[in-house]
# Entry
Amino acid sequence: MAHLDNADPANLHTAEPGEALSRRQALSMAGVIAASVGATAAHAESSHDESDAGGKSVGEAAAPANAVEFRARFVQTGASGEDFAAYGYLTRAAGAGAGDLFWGSTFNETTALLTAYAAGTLSRRVLDQSVHSLDIEGSLTIYQRAAPGASFGTPASFQVGVPVARFDLTLQDILTVFAPAKGIPTLTGGMRQTLAEKLAGPPGGRRFGHTGSRARLFATGLGTLVDPVTLNAALEMAGNWVLE
# Structure
């Protein structure tokens, strides 16, 4: 920033009482003042932009802190268990308060205001005796609801509201079978954000993440084999993602 006290004294000659400034001196002072005002305004605008970008985001936290935490149900369907869907809600998000996440003091799917829905397909499966590996590719969308009302009995209810974030997913599910038709899934993989919108409501202006960001997802829980022929299954899981 240019300051008046750093200007060339020759150009800032102060008139003695009764002495008029020359035209050259007046123009010089006007130029310095204009430069100072312009630099100050640019600095203020830059600071405002940085505040908007860095201080009003949701779902972003410096690693290794969790950026987002969630609970969800996963279902594996199709003739050979090749289709996947997941639906749930955010239980924590950096930059969001309890009032952003839930309606009231009860924290579950029926009061959730930021819900999630994902769909994917199987890209590879490796079966062994008790530990199985499945590679899955898909996408995940976060919705902001105007009012609560999601239900695990109605998967489509988690797609109600305005999409505020979307991610491409590349995941691996390692399933450890510990009893007939029962297994412990461990889901890990990469996320790449493709949509980042501002959330509605006060204080307003907070964007959910930013396009192009990458994260690592982790989730675990309990899985139940529904059909041993089609390998259809249902899973209850919880997890998080961490920005890379």
